[in-house]
Every structure is written in C-alpha cells, then in structure tokens.
C-alpha cells in the first residue's frame, strides 16, 4: 500500500503505510502548477494524476518506482501536463476501459480527456455524442487555449542560478 498527499506548495509526497516518506514530487512542466487540489491513480497504480488550483492536470508514471523504490534508477516520470479548466480542479478519475480522464471544476463543468495525450473529448451535457475513438482532431474547450505539453524524459527541475554580479548602483558608470 502507498499513501499520497498533495500540498499547497505543488509537492506530492508518497508515504509507506508505516508513515515513512518514500518520495517527494515537484512538477517541472512549463506552467507553474500552483496548489494541488485533487489526486487519483489508475487501478494498477501505474499512473498518478494531480489537479491544480489553476486548472491543470499533471500525469506521472509511477510504475517502475513502485516495483522497487530502493533502486534509484526507477524514477517517477512526469509525462504530461495540460490545462483542463480555467478554474480549480476539484475532482478527477481515470476510466481505464476507455482510457479517459474525467475532470470536475468549481466552474461546474465536468470534462472528458484522452488519458495518454490529454486531448479534449467534450463535456457532460453537450448536444453531440462523445467520440472517444478519434484522437486525431485536436480540439480545446472554449475557456482553455493551451495544448497539452508532453514532458521529455531528459527534462530536469529548474535550478536557481547564482548571480555573480547582483544589481548594484555603480556611480562610476
């Protein structure tokens, strides 16, 4: 068993059932994620999804880490980040049979997304039927204009650079 906690600092902490901290995750996508508001995993606990206060969904692959958490080569990989809502995500879950992620927001909307690509299928209450097999049409909801960002494996967390010459008033110049 594994426990996951989401925090206002954008950090996800993975805990053993004994209460030992196993791993801390920080998103490194191009969008600042902000406070995390929702978490879910698939049934086999291979995928971890997090929703943010700004409406983003972040997808991690945690399968290899959970197989052997002591092996440092088995890293948790951030795979995808997309803007799902213009406001806070309050709940999400993965429907594995159809590979669909369902998200809900404080704006009252419930939306469907392709689980692997973050492509938008539609919202509950729309007039047309959901077409879950066609992921070739890249459409977005009307209040979101950012396409999903695929996170490359070689991406690293941004490190703070040390400033050699801080801004100072130089009267001679």
Give the structure's gist in a few sentences.
The chain is mostly beta strands.
Model description:
The protein is an all-beta fold and 173 residues long. Helix content is 3%, strand content 37%. The protein contains one helix and twelve strands. The strands form three sheets. A five-stranded antiparallel sheet has the order 4-5-6-7-12, with no helix packed on it. Strands 8-9-10-11 form a four-stranded antiparallel sheet, with no helix packed on it. The longest helix is centred in the middle third of the chain and has 5 residues, at 63-67. It is globular.
What key phrases describe this protein's structure?
WDR64 protein; Methylamine Dehydrogenase, Chain H; four-stranded antiparallel sheet; five-stranded antiparallel sheet; 173 residues; 3% helix; globular; mainly beta; single chain; WD-EF-hand_domain; WD repeat; WD40_repeat_dom_sf; repeat
